[in-house]
Amino acid sequence: MLGIISFIIVFGLLVTVHEFGHLYFAKRAGIMCPEFAIGMGPKIFSYKKNETLYTIRLLPVGGYVMMAGSGMEQNPVTAGMTVSIKKNEHNEVTHVILDDQHQFRQIEQLEVSDSDFEDQLFIEGIDQYTNEKVTYPIAEKAYFVREGDLIQIAPRDLQFKNKKPWPKFLTLFAGPLFNFILALLLFIGYFYATGTPTDKAIVGGTMQDSPADKAGLVTKDRIVSIDGESISKWEDMTSYFNSHDIKQHEIIIDRDGKELSKQITPKIQNVSTTSKEDKRAVIGINPLLVHDSLIDPLIYGIKTTFSTGLMIFNLVGALFASIFTGTFSFDMLNGPVGIYKNTEKIASLGILPLIGFTATLSVNLGIMNLLPIPALDGGRILFVIYEAIFKRPVNKKAEIVIISIGAVFLFFVMIMVTWNDIQRYFF
Questions:
Q1: Percentage of residues of the chain with pLDDT beyond 70
Q2: Where is the Peptidase M50 domain (predicted)?
Q3: What is the arithmetic mean of pLDDT over 185-208?
């Protein structure tokens, strides 16, 4: 139960912050947003404010902000449909009625032959009372009436595609940006709670069965020297072990004012942060965490956000390189099932590890969404950059085809990763 609750909170926070970034900058740019959704599939909760319908959907596999003129909308009116319309005194359509849950007066019925609710803003068809072919413009403020809701039809100036490249770029980039900001805030809060590592060579804790643990080192032991060489900083100790052979070393520690001699033999640890593996000598200790400064958590929060982003960027690069080297495996990826299992494991360790894990996931979500893959933010940003350079948008049909291919590719990858996670964790 703890795992399920933790996953819902973590997933909900990451997706909500990401999509809110898009929504916030879209509204600042004057883009109409008919829907803000967390999750996919059937609606389980909805709330309407102004022109935006806020929904929570059943499947926890993402979310979206539906922006007018972004290509996500589908025309709900097709040729051959019979719809009711209401007009104003200027003979402009103010309501296209797609259900019978509203009682409008002075309406007309139309068998639709053609319609456009984005560019030309008109509806054409056969008037069911006069049997004549008619064409009506769409009013500046007009609505679809569907499922009991009034859904505003966006005027041209409130559509994403009619904005200049810079507002488009900011709107698309805002989702990943808000994930990076969330990670920064979480890391800063984490370090305010735990403290920041001191630069002194003081033991903050030892790992079980590590060389330090076997040698008898305990928390708050201060390392004075190694093989007679004076040690004052943490970096002095780590660089000494990495620059000498793996052998037994004599270390002098200060414990409660008394100097003690210990014999310790480091072990080699493989560190994989890029496509190659680095080796380093470790003795299995962590630095002491202190609360000496109000500024240090801010500094460590910024550093950790940056270093986490760099690590994930390198791992993503290694992942793509593995496709060409033939070493790719779906085990390198985690889908919703894998994230759930890892969240469950981390949540069992306590709230602080879960905060750190959530911050790392937030950085990961931001970077993954910036990948230049159609249907992701990064792919759509490429279209905006093309428009800014060549002073014209990408051909609409070509853009739809490219994004559709990207969406199918992502759907396939999601299915394969999810199935692989199920086999890995449950069989």
A1: 97
A2: 7-412
A3: 93
Beta bridge partners of 279: 270
Sorted by sequence, the CB contacts under 8 Å of residue 194 that are 6+ apart come out as: 289, 352
Is residue 396 located within the same domain as residue 300? yes
Q: 240 and 377 share a domain?
A: no
pLDDT of residue 400: 83
Q: Which of these three, 290, 324, 359, is where a domain ends? A: 290
Q: What phi, psi does 9 have (nearest 5°)?
A: -65, -45
Confidence of residue 274 (pLDDT cuts 50, 70, 90): very low
* Confidence band for 227, pLDDT divided at 50, 70 and 90: very high
Q: 252 and 220 in one domain?
A: yes
The structure's pTM equals: 0.85
Beta-carbon contacts of 397 under 8 Å, excluding residues fewer than 6 positions away, are none
Query: Do the domain assignments include residue 4?
Result: no
Confidence band for 16, pLDDT divided at 50, 70 and 90: very high
Confirm whether 66 is domain-assigned: no
CA 93 to chain centre: 40
The CA distance from 124 to 83, in Å, is: 11
Q: Clarify whether residues 351 and 315 are in a common domain.
A: yes
Instruction: Determine the residue type at 154.
Output: A
Q: What is the pLDDT of residues 100-140, one digit of tens each?
A: 766 777 888 999 999 999 889 999 999 988 999 999 999 99
Residues 6+ apart with CB under 8 A from 354: 6, 10, 343, 346, 347
Place of tokens 């002075």: 106
Please state, in angstroms and rounded to a whole number, the distance separating the CA atoms of residues 206 and 287. Answer: 9
Residue 201 and residue 39: Cα distance in Å, rounded?
47
SS3 breakdown of the chain: % helix, strand, coil, rounded to 5? Answer: 45, 30, 30
Give the H/E segment covering residue 22. Answer: helix 2-28
DSSP 145-190: EETTEEEEEPPGGGSGGGS-HHHHHHHHHHHHHHHHHHHHHHHHHH
Go through 185-205 and write b for each residue having 16 or more CB atoms within 10 A of its CB, e for each that does not.
Answer: ebbbbbbbebbbbbebbbbbb
Question: Are 296 and 414 contained in the same domain?
Answer: yes
Co-location of 312 and 169 in the same domain: yes
349 shares its domain with 390: yes
Residue 387 annotated in active site: no
Q: What is the pLDDT of residue 272?
A: 52
- Write the DSSP assignment of 331-367 as a string of letters: GG---HHHHHHHHHHHHTT-HHHHHHHHHHHHHHHHH
Residues 151-169, mean pLDDT to the nearest whole number: 93
Q: Domain check: are 308 and 283 in the same one?
A: no
